[in-house]
Amino acid sequence: MATEVENIKGNFYVRHHNEITGERIRHKGFKTLDEAKKKANEIEIDFYKKHTNLLPKGVTIKNQTFRLSIASYLISSESKGLRDIASARTLKEIKELKLKCLSSIIG
C-alpha cells in the first residue's frame, strides 16, 4: 500500500493505494502537513495490522510503529527470542533501515 501526502492549493490530502483491491482513496484536506502525515501513518498502520502477510520479513507493528526484529540465540541459556533493532513511523523508513542493516552485515 502506497500512502502519500500531496499539497493541492494549500490543502494537504492523504492518498493511498490498497494493494489487495487496487482501490485508490483520497482523504479530505488537512490544513497542516503534520496532520496529513499523522493520518497517513494511521492508515498505513491500520492496513498492515489487518494484512500482516504483506509486511516485509522481520518487520512487525508494535505501539503504532513499524519494528525491525531479528532472531537471537543466547548460547549460555540456549534460549531464543526476537530483538528489535530499529523502529520507524512509516513502512518506507523501516525498509530503508532494513537495507542499511543488511548492507552493513554483508559488508
- The strands making up the biggest β-sheet line up spatially as 1-2-3
Helix count equals: 2
Instruction: Specify the helix fraction band.
Output: 25-40%
Class derived from helix and strand content = alpha+beta
Give the CA-based shape. Answer: elongated
Topology, number of strands:
6
Radius of gyration: 17 Å
* Major sheet details: 3 strands, antiparallel
User: How many angstroms does the end-to-end distance come to?
Assistant: 31 Å
Q: How would you sum up this structure, described in words?
A:
The protein has 107 residues and is an alpha+beta fold. It folds into 2 domains: 1-54; 56-107, no CATH class. It has helices at residues 33-50, 91-106; strands at residues 2-8, 11-17, 24-30, 59-62, 65-74, 79-88. The strands form 2 sheets. The chain has a 3-stranded antiparallel beta sheet with strand order 1-2-3, with helices on one face.
Write the layout of secondary structure elements.
Layout: E1 2-8, E2 11-17, E3 24-30, H1 33-50, E4 59-62, E5 65-74, E6 79-88, H2 91-106
Please sum up the structure shown.
32% of the residues lie in helices and 42% in strands.
Defining traits:
single chain; 6 strands; 107 residues; 3-stranded antiparallel beta sheet; alpha+beta; 2 domains; 32% helix; elongated; 2 helices
